[in-house]
């Protein structure tokens, strides 16, 4: 099997020059780069990641910290990050751990500081545990995905605006009794992003003079969680709302399924709107606030590679696009 020394000898350059030409890092004239590439092709040379690390001082590995990927958003985001890293010949070390767990505490306290990464992408970081600040102390380039990004480059949607727009859509249709389903009613357990969405819901009701009608039903941000919460909410015929805002599409879809089980027609008797534009949203004709977590993953890698190449560059905050997607789960109240 050919080595970097073989490539350098065939191209008539030093090993260091051959390494720079093949890695794309450091200056090499275009003529020399071409000669080295031709030599590598002729020898069927494939760079070993360990050798590349020794030559460049980089591990070619990025750490990704995020909640467990059993939710669609995080699975899609992971797919986007992985696609971009593979295109750059980077490896990925994934740490998908639950918020508030002992495992997560150990991850931030001892595991991440002891690992060698070229950079870290942090998803859904909780400010209450000062997790972002602890990642800063590792001294590695850092990018966050989500609404909390103190001192780091970041990509996110405006979660407050997303829930406000979803709620305003229902208000504009004529709904006054609008409930919010999903997230915890205990602010100590509420994730930062869900807290922002809850604020957007309350803000829209307050602006319309409807804050006295606010109702929040805590539930896991999943289809079963939304189903259970909505089933309890809709079971009382005299006090049921005319519309529901789901903290995410999964909770909103769960609410639609609960309504159907109870014989409540959507949207003639109950309007439902979600946030995310989940892969199943169109199947359930769900009106939602659309976003693309896969594209956010691509953008996070772009931001991180810039931080790795230009550590002194200004921090960047990218606002991912989101917009109202109207389908047939919402209509004026009867």
Automatic annotation (TrEMBL):
Species whose genome carries this gene: Microbacterium paraoxydans
Keywords from the named record: DNA-binding, Transcription, Transcription regulation
Region (Disordered) residue spans: 312-334
Keyword Ion transport carried by entry: no
Protein name: LacI family DNA-binding transcriptional regulator
Molecular-function annotations in GO: DNA binding
Domain (HTH lacI-type): residue spans on this chain: 2-56
Ranges of compositional bias, category Polar residues: 320-334
Record has Zinc as a keyword: no
Record PANTHER family: LACI-RELATED TRANSCRIPTIONAL REPRESSOR (PTHR30146), LACTOSE OPERON REPRESSOR (PTHR30146:SF153)
């Amino acid at each position: 099997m050919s080595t970097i020394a073989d490539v350098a000898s065939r191209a008539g350059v030093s090993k260091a020059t051959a390494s720079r030409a093949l890695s794309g890092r450091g200056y090499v004239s275009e003529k020399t780069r071409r000669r080295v590439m031709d030599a590598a092709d002729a020898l069927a040379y494939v760079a070993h990641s360990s050798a590349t690390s020794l030559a460049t001082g980089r591990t070619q590995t990025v750490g990704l910290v995020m909640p467990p990927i059993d939710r669609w958003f995080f699975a899609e985001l992971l797919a986007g990050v992985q696609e971009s890293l593979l295109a750059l010949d980077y490896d990925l070390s994934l740490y998908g751990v639950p918020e508030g767990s002992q495992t997560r505490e150990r991850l931030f306290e001892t595991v991440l500081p002891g690992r060698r990464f070229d950079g870290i992408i942090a998803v859904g970081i909780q400010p209450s545990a000062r997790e972002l600040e602890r990642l800063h102390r590792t001294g590695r380039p850092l990018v966050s995905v989500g609404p909390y990004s103190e001192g780091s480059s970041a990509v996110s949607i405006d979660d407050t605006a997303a829930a406000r727009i979803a709620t305003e859509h229902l208000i504009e249709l004529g709904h006054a009794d609008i409930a919010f389903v999903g997230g915890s009613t205990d602010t100590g357990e509420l994730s930062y992003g869900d807290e922002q969405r809850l604020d957007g819901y309350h803000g829209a009701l307050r602006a319309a003079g409807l804050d006295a009608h606010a109702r929040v039903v805590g539930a896991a941000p999943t289809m079963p969680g939304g189903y259970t919460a909505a089933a309890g909410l809709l079971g009382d015929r005299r006090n049921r709302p005319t519309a529901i805002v789901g903290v995410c599409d999964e909770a909103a879809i769960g609410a639609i399924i609960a309504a159907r089980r109870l014989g409540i027609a959507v949207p003639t008797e109950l309007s439902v709107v979600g946030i995310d534009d989940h892969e199943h949203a169109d199947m359930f004709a769900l009106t939602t606030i659309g976003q693309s977590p896969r594209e956010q993953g691509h953008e996070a890698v772009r931001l991180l590679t810039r931080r790795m190449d230009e550590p002194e560059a200004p921090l960047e905050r990218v606002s991912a696009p989101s917009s109202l997607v109207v389908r047939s789960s919402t209509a004026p109240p009867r």
